[in-house]
Write a structure and sequence with these properties.
The protein is an alpha/beta fold. 32% of the residues lie in helices and 17% in strands. It contains eleven helices and 13 strands. It has helices at 20-31, 50-63, 84-92, 121-130, 150-165, 179-186, 206-210, 227-237, 255-258, 273-283, 290-302; strands at residues 4-8, 12-15, 36-39, 71-77, 96-101, 134-136, 171-173, 193-197, 244-246, 310-315, 324-327, 330-333, 343-349. The strands form three sheets. It has an eight-stranded parallel β-sheet. It has a three-stranded antiparallel β-sheet with strand order 1-10-13, with helices on one face. The radius of gyration is 19 Å and the shape is globular. The structure holds N-carbamoyl-L-aspartate and zinc ion (2 copies). Residues 107, 137, 174-175, 221 line the site of one zinc ion (ZN). One of its GO terms (molecular function) is dihydroorotase activity. Keywords: Hydrolase, Metal-binding, Pyrimidine biosynthesis, Zinc. Homodimer. Belongs to the metallo-dependent hydrolases superfamily. DHOase family. Class II DHOase subfamily.
Amino acid sequence: MTDRLTLRQPDDWHLHLRDGDMLRAVLPETARHFARAIIMPNLVPPVVTAADAADYRDRIMAAKPLNNGFKPLMTLYLTETTDAKDVRAAAEIGLITAVKLYPAGATTNSASGVRDLDKVMRVLETMAQIGLPLCLHGEVTTPDVDIFDREAVFIDTVLAPLRERLPGLRTVLEHVTTRDGVDYVASEPEDSMGATITTHHLIIDRNHILAGGIRPHYYCLPVAKRATHRDALIAAATSGDPRFFLGTDSAPHLDAAKLQPCGCAGCFTATNTLSCLAEVFERAGTLDRLEGFASLHGPAFYKLPVNERSITLVKGAPVAYPAAIDTAEGPVTVFDPGFPLHWRVEGPQT
Ligand SMILES: NC(=O)N[C@@H](CC(=O)O)C(=O)O
Ligand SMILES: [Zn+2]
Ligand SMILES: [Zn+2]
């Protein structure tokens, strides 16, 4: 029986670090194990311009633990007034790694997102020309579309037509949650289409949120779907298909903001993500494919080198992790997978 597994140091291709006290509290949780992360730009106000991204990157670097080599990969928040020249310049100097499109109103802090795709075509064409990836929150916001159908409808009515219009645009369907999404991504060329899969969507289904009492800490967007969709995500993540890679979407909110009559969406998984993933891959009998999912497919899509350092997962007695981490403004509950985690992370080692 395998009880040690060494892999290239992983990266997180979808991460929320927030700002200020929250940033200082959550950044060490990711930087402990991950070498790089795509940093989501949905701050208040959002990270829209190259200058915003440079300032935010500096705040992240200042909040980083000493002697830690973590590298934030910055993104811009696409708005209908984003300037294509600013995006091009930011990409050319290596300041940004991607641009993020939020349909207006789809999720946390998405009010300045895109309502009309025609208004951002200039920017998207520039991105296609220079090979800069577009990350998509893939849900429609039409109020008459059921929340459980928003991703599938997005694929048919927004993503597929966009890809036909701009086949050269390198696109990531973020936090895919449905079989429909997995099937669509798998049918597209691997050089121009990828998808991130979160840790929590590999573990929970919608029953975790609603059966036996309402559990706000499992509420995130896109909302978890039925178990058959979760199983399609596990199959995709463990398949070895390079189109699928880890984006935790670790999305911290103060407990006070989640435990509300109208609570925020987001699961905070940075603290125990790798132990959770090892458990998922072990159960699927595919531990040997965890490295591809967490450490190799993402760099291949983003055309970045893989990390030089490695980490080792060691199986033993259940791993202890805090139920919540403290921030200056209060606790943030850590994702509870609902089962013990036996894989402990050692390293990174050089
Ligand atoms: N995933 C979430 O439920 N929430 C994210 C936003 C997002 O990724 O859609 C957040 O910023 O809190
Ligand atoms: Zn999102
Ligand atoms: Zn997110």
